[in-house]
Specification:
Distance between the termini: 51 Å
CATH architecture of the largest domain: 3-Layer(aba) Sandwich
CATH topology of the largest domain: Rossmann fold
Strand order of the largest sheet: 5-2-1-6-7-8-12-13
Strand content: 15-25%
Number of strands: 14
Radius of gyration: 19 Å
Oligomer: single chain
Helix content: 40-55%
Number of domains: 2
Order of helices and strands: EHEHEEEEHEHEEEEEHEHHHEHHHH
Length: 319
Amino acid sequence: MRFVIFGVGAIGGGLAASLALAGYDVVGIARGAQLDAIQRNGLRVRTPVSDDTVRFPCVGAPDEISFRPDDVIFLTMKTQDTKAALESLERCGVRRQAIVCAQNGIENERLALRLFENVYAAVVMMPADFVKPGEVVVNCGPKLGVFNIGRYPKGIDSTTREICMALDGAGFAGFPEADVMPGKYGKLLMNLSNVLDAAAGEAARKSPLADAARAEAETVLETAGIPYTKGFRHDDLMQITPVNGAPRTGSSSAQSLVRKAGSIETGYLNGEIVLLGRLHGVPVPVNGFLCDLGRRLVAEGVEPGSLSLAEVQDAHEKY
């Protein structure tokens, strides 16, 4: 089994380096300054108890890889980049290889299943930062992250078990789960406040606006008849733990702003709730506003955490 990590950012970088350190065959796919840094010096991965610089093969596109039947391809890019990534894999002759969607939101699996038959969903609990090329910080312990993985839409097979065993051997906790999508919807509810964190900092995650977005989303999911997991965290295995000299940046959305990535994942997080609300006749004004806020953050080049919660609330009232 070889692991192809498509998107060597916070999650992908932590995965690639840890699997490589554990002796697994790993190939990364990265771009820009991150690719240059990894090819030149390797990837530095800092955790609460370690600081390693790991070298593994890393390329700029799938067409630089000779794919093997035993490849397990982890998608770890943001959802807005998934469609192009999947199409590039298809052009390279990928057909029956395992595609693991280790991403926020629930659109990635649907996109993947249009092109590939062996698609796996992963609920990822792994607080990690990627804001500096060539470096990833994993802010948790004692495990580096927790992964619940199953076939999409349902099922467990030998590949699921082998992936989870490999993750266990690389310092993570992997759990095969036959019905994994309720967990992904549960994680989606957690991620609805990412854009608030990106706009106004960590405190905004516990604001009345964040509570309203989640309540609105729960109403949407219940109306649509979509089950979601309310408590799937494994605090005995993984808790947020600081890394000396590396303060946390915030959510994955905040990290996109820091890197000036030019896009943000809000449209596939809060936007999923907006879509479902409109399909099922449920008003979704709060999540609609948060989608608009995400677009504004990118268009105006707003620095992460630079808005006050009062400014965000005022914008919501005028929305």
